[in-house]
Design goal:
With about 230 residues, this protein is α/β, with parallel strands linked by helices. It has one domain: 3-Layer(aba) Sandwich (Aminopeptidase). The chain contains six helices and ten strands; from the N terminus they run E-H-E-E-H-E-E-E-E-H-E-E-H-E-H-H.
């Protein structure tokens, strides 16, 4: 029986005219270990690299986080541990919310809506998800809203914006469905406010950690990590 729940978390590069991305700042502020008395602790596996707004990088990141190689996560592994493998239980993508001043929980991602170029100027091109016959819509398996802190405003959305937030969610859900059958649906996308002051970042990190704790009690995980 696993002694800890491993949550892989990603943050993103600066976007548009911003010289920062609050998702990366929140990621950096997360604790490496979330303790839970009488329950399995949660090990936060922070992807070392920024996730870029390019189709190639998003696909690469989805493969990396689910593959679980120790060397791609912070803190840096000890010598000799770089190629050890972590059994990732949940993938959480953080993103900076531009449309709202609050937190956002995304519930699903679509396959066929990616017609804009990435930050490298390149379009998706051939949509391999279509060629492979993957579903038009993929959903997270978690009860995303049930686990949220009730006193903190947030929105729950089934439209992540048909750009890289949604593509990240679809990509990682597809990777789990294709190559990690026991992990299918175990992906979350949390939008965090675009504030960058230290107090706001710490608040968002604390809230995200509390959310991870609640998600760890979701039946989706408790049934498979018993």
């Amino acid at each position: 029986m696993a002694q800890e729940i491993n949550v892989a978390v990603t943050g993103n590069e600066p976007i548009l005219d911003f010289d920062y991305n609050s998702s990366r700042l929140v990621l950096d502020a997360l604790p490496e270990l979330i303790t839970r008395e009488g329950k399995k602790n949660i090990r936060v596996r922070k992807l070392a690299q920024d996730s870029l707004d390019t189709y190639a990088d998003v696909r690469s990141v989805s493969r990396k986080v689910w593959a679980g190689k120790r060397k791609v996560f912070l803190p840096k592994p000890d010598a000799g541990d770089e190629d050890t493998t972590i059994d990732i239980d949940v993938v959480v993508h953080l993103g900076m919310e531009l449309r709202e001043k609050t937190f956002g929980l995304e519930t699903q991602a679509r396959r066929d809506v990616y017609d804009k170029p990435g930050s490298d100027g390149k379009h998706l091109g051939t949509n391999l998800f279509i060629e492979k016959g993957l579903p038009e819509v993929l959903n997270t398996s978690f009860g995303v809203h049930a686990a949220w802190e009730k006193d903190t405003p947030c929105f729950v959305s089934d439209d992540a914006g048909s750009y890289f937030s949604e593509f990240r969610l679809y990509s990682s859900l597809a990777e789990a469905l294709e190559h990690h059958e026991d992990k299918k649906g175990k992906v979350l996308f949390l939008h965090v406010p675009k504030k960058r002051d230290p107090e706001a970042i710490q608040f968002a990190a604390d809230l995200a950690a509390a959310y991870f704790k609640a998600v760890a009690d979701d039946k989706v995980l408790t049934d498979t990590n018993a």
